[in-house]
Amino acid sequence: MSKATVKKLHWRSKVQESFVPLGGGSGELGLAIGGGADYGEFPFVTAAPGGGATVGDIILEIGGTPVLGMTLGDVRGVLNSCPHPIRIKTVSPGSSLCKDLRLYLSKCFTPGSMDSQLQQLIRENLYLRAVPCTTHTHATTCSQYRY
């Protein structure tokens, strides 16, 4: 079979599930994370001294909660609130799914496809967690606006 006939596997087929152990006697998590929507990136593994994850991998879920589109603080909050050992889903970054959140959101996908659904999930997380909500009071009415 030639290289031209080999179909490239979708990133979804490369998702890995693992468990994050507590660090040796210290009781700390065996995982450090970086990125987050506040940095325009997907959350990713920056250190995994306890094993269970690979440095550089994009974190898709923590304890069953999708974390794409969350700020770094929110991702850390999810990580710290899960019972131990923590189950995470990760994927190695590649050409179709790199660490750049803005690049992924700018791509056009077929409506209803896995990537299109993931974009929608990311936008919902961004809207819920990263978009400020302010209350404006007027002389005659009180309204809430979301920007």
UniProtKB/TrEMBL annotation:
A single GO cellular-component term on record: cytoplasm
SUPFAM superfamilies named among the record's database cross-references? PDZ domain-like
What Gene3D superfamilies does UniProt report for this protein, alphabetically? Answer: 2.30.42.10
**Annotated PDZ domain residues:** 26-94
Q: Which GO terms describe its biological process?
A: signal transduction
InterPro entries, sorted: PDZ, PDZ_sf
| Entries under PANTHER family matching the protein | MAGI FAMILY MEMBER, X-LINKED A-RELATED, MEMBRANE ASSOCIATED GUANYLATE KINASE-RELATED
Q: Under what name is this protein listed? A: PDZ domain-containing protein
Organism encoding this protein? Seriola dumerili
Lineage at the top is: Eukaryota, Metazoa, Chordata, Craniata, Vertebrata
